[in-house]
Every structure is written in C-alpha cells, then in structure tokens.
Amino acid sequence: MVIYFQYMAKGKAKAKPSPKVSRRVATSGDIEVSTYLEIAKEIGGVQPAAAKEAIPSGEREAIIVIDFGSQYSLLIARRVRECQVYCELVSPDTPWEKIAPLNPKGFILSGGPGSVYEANAPMTPSYVYERHLPVLGICYGMQVITHQMGGQVAPGAKREYGHALLHLGGVDSPLFANVPQSTPVWMSHGDKIEAMPPDFNVLAYTDNSPFAAIGNDKNIFGLQFHPEVVHTPEGKTILKNFIYRICGCQGNWTMGNFITDSLAKIQKEVGKGKVISALSGGVDSSVVSTVIHRAIGDQITCIFVNHGMLRREEVERTFNTFRLNMGMNIIYIDASERFLDRLKGVTDPETKRKIIGEEFINVFEEEARKIGEVDFLAQGTLYPDVIESASSGSTAAANIKSHHNVGGLPSRMTLKLLEPLRYLFKDEVRQVGLELGLPEEMVWRQPFPGPGLAIRIIGEVTKEKLEILRAADWVVMNEIKKAKLYHQLWQSFAILTDVRSVGVMGDYRTYGYLVAVRAVTSDDAMTADWSRLPYDVLARISNRIVNEVPEVNRVVYDITSKPPSTIEWE
Ligand code: XMP
After folding, report:
1. What residues are labeled active site?
2. Are residues 82 and 287 in contact, defined by beta-carbon separation less than 8 angstroms?
3. Which residue, of 11, 169, 324, 534, has the greatest Cβ tally within 10 A?
C-alpha cells in the first residue's frame, strides 16, 4: 500500500523530473506486495495461534545508539535488539528529554565517516557523560571519546580496512568475558588513537592498533573495530557483555512483549474509532492489519484491491488467509478491468506505474467512502523508514512516508495514521507475523513490486499477455521452490518481453514470445547479483515453459547484476 501512495505522490507532483539515476519509486519495507502466496490451502480453517504467553514486560529499558553516520549504525541497533534489549538510533543533537522516557541503560556511539579534528565534526552530547551511564564508542565513536576526554586522535599513516587479529591484553574487562584470547575482528578506519585519555587502559590490541580496545573504570569503553558486523565473529558476545554485564539490562524486548504492549496501545489509541487498511498480501501490510485486528477486531476493515496485475492464485490465497483463517473483515475489489482499460496502449514504464498508483487511490477512496466515518489509516511503516525520514534533515521532510501517504488521500478524509510497526526492523516484523499465526510462507515471501506484472510485461499490458506471463512465472516459482532455492534468492521471476522469434515444434514453425528468467541474490535490493542457478534447474524451467505455455518458444536467462541493470526490467 505504501508504495502505491508513493506513486501517487510522485504522479501528482507537477513537472517533477524523474530522478536521474533510477526511474524507480524508492522501495520500502513494503515491497513484498502480494507475492506468491504459498499459503495454506492445506491449513485452511485452522485458527491462528494466540500470541505466545507474553513474558512480563518488566521495567522499561533501552540502549541508545548515537548515530554519527556510519553505514553500520542501523546494524548496531539490530544487533542490540537481537540480544532482546530495545534499542533506538538518535542523532547527536537529540536532546536528553527525548531520550529519558526510554529509560536508557547505556549508550553506544556509532562509527562515522568524519574525523574528530575537522571543523563541525559531530560530538557526543554532554548528557551522555553526565548521566554516568556506560558508554561504548565504536570506531569514530571511540575517537570522539578519546578527543573529548583528553586523549589524542591523528590521521593514520594508512587506512586499516579488513580483518585483523585482536589479542586481549592489558587490563581484564567484563566487556571481553568469554571472548578467546585472540580473535578476528573487522577494522575500517583511517584515523587512529595516538594517546588514550587519562585514566584509560588498554584492553586489547592488534598488530596495527595498540589501542584496539580501551576502557576506564567508569564504564566508558572504546573499540577500534566493528563488533556489529558478521566479520567479527565474537562481536555479538562483546555487545552482549556490554548490554548485560556492564549496563545491567534485563532483556525484555521480545516480540511476545511487543505484541502485548501493542495491543494495549492500539486499543487505547483507537478507542471506539474505525480503522481502514489496504491489504496487499505483502509482509508489512499483512502483519500490520493482523496486529490491529487482534487488538480491535472488527473495528478494522481491510480493503484488498485486485489491480489485475497479480500472479496466479495470489488473490485466492490472500483472501483465504485473511478472511477464512483470520476471520478479518475484508472488502475485496476486483478492479482488473478498470486498470486494464486505463493501461490500454500504454508502453512507457513510468506511465504504467503512475496510472496504477492513481487508479489504486481512486478505487481505495471509493471503497473507503462506502464504509462511512473512518478515523485511522493503518500503515506498515517500519523503523528503517522512520530513520530514513528523520535523517533526511528537514522537519518538513521528516516522515516522508506518512507524508506521501496522507498526501495521496483526499483531504476530506482526515485520517490519522496508525503505525504500530514503526519501531520494528523487518526481521522483527516477520517474527511478529509468525507469533500472530500468519503462515511462514507468507511471512518469508520474496518481494513483489506494487505495479505487479505490469512492469514485467515489456510494452503494452493486455489480458492475453498477463495470462502468458502468469503461466511462465508459475513454472519459474514452482521449479525454484522444488529446488529449495526460494529462500536463498532475493527474487526469482519471469519477464514477458516484446520480442518474438522463430522456432520449430514438431513439423511446424512457430513464431512465439521470448520469456526471460531473472533470479537474483541481494541483501537490500540496492545492489544485486544474478544467481548462478544450477543448469538443470534452468533446463527444467525452460523445458516446462515452452511445453506448458504455447505462446512461448524461447527462454533466456538474465545474467546481469544491479548495477548496471535493475532487478525489474521496467
Ligand atoms: P529495481 O528493479 O529498481 O528494484 O532494482 C528494486 C526492488 O524494488 C522492487 N520494485 C518496486 N517495488 N514498486 C514497488 O513496490 C515499484 O514501482 C517497484 N519497482 C521495483 C523490485 O521488485 C525490487 O525488489
């Protein structure tokens, strides 16, 4: 849903030039819109499990990451949360009043691209030291501690990047409890510590860094390496030591607790109000709708718009899961004809996106109006979106996503946003989904773009082409799943090109469509590599497509990475 509204905002912006680098709408956590739902024909009728017995939430506690701009900052927060302690990322200019309600038990100062001795280099806010809470500085964070507490930081003779062997030495510290005497760590820094601040001790060193880990007896620590990345195998132990042994956290951040808290919060916020959500079958919209439904039952109505660009069985499966298994109140609208009508003769990819986005809003609004008075719009905003928006600098730009979403809706619909997932990472959302009883296949599905098959059909979208692509795509997904590759791949799908070529079948010449197969690995869709699929899997895909889809007589495999290509073809 999110994406559709984003299109809308984009489509409406007068003469707003498309970004040069990519024609795509920036993707969000909700790109998993309506994927192949390998759900639950077989589990039809089974009631969802109740949220697990929630561990008592106990005292509120948090670790605060002061974000100096490292590419790894979000990763630090994720790692802390994996240790079952709530963690938030804040910019160095965040006032204490905003942090205090979270009851911080310690601070982590992230890495960052700057140098502490540059003018305007970001510094740790003074409350971090004044509160006498434990502090762990990582890389730039360590250099800031050194600089602010009277040590010396200087440019390194050479940049240290990559693996190093860390040796524990100097003073023993609980920070390194259960860490072997020597262990690999990941380094990435230019500047280095020349002299520690007064009263600091060396805790560990590497060949290149005599001050690879330092600390004082006030629980202020610095690490020159990155404990948050997987290349530091003992990194999680070190972070856990900091969180539990040094900060004294209890560890009450579990998805069971999250659900319990959320249900209460949603009930309080919504009261007797009415909520609508655009259910797409993607992970975020599914989880958000489910958690709200769990909280307020039939006060939420989900609107599921079928734009006709979905894949085989997608509608039925989404519908079965939510209406039959979850008992949710869903309005299903088959608007395929409307969308197809508007897409007649359209070949430009960006125009296709715009039309689909606009039409989606039209349909959504029409349906929402029929419900009558509505107070809230449910939204699958996730924590990375919140951070992305907040770090965009201006307050006007803050909360880009909500902005777009609300902007896309008619102004007379003065809806408040209900965003119960806004502090969760994607993996946490999946966990919540599972705890709420959503099928695994739905929670772990590959992303699917909002405009659906429309941007996988090169040229005009027609009913006939949609059927051809659905049949070919079904084979791809089926074979990928049979080969147990589905979860390893970021995405795998078919594209219907507008190329026709000559072939021969039996005694006849054919002149059929060319289908391309795309399968990529990726962490975040920003970059992607084409997957080295086994030849026999490719062979089966190709054989089955040409045998099962009469209009197709040739199959090719896309072996380009992103960049320079994109994942989708349009
Ligand atoms: P590209 O093709 O730009 O795609 O490499 C990156 C990721 O985004 C998805 N994608 C979209 N998702 N609306 C969406 O909701 C779109 O317009 C759109 N275009 C691309 C794509 O499937 C991939 O996961």
Report:
1. 139, 226, 228
2. no
3. 11
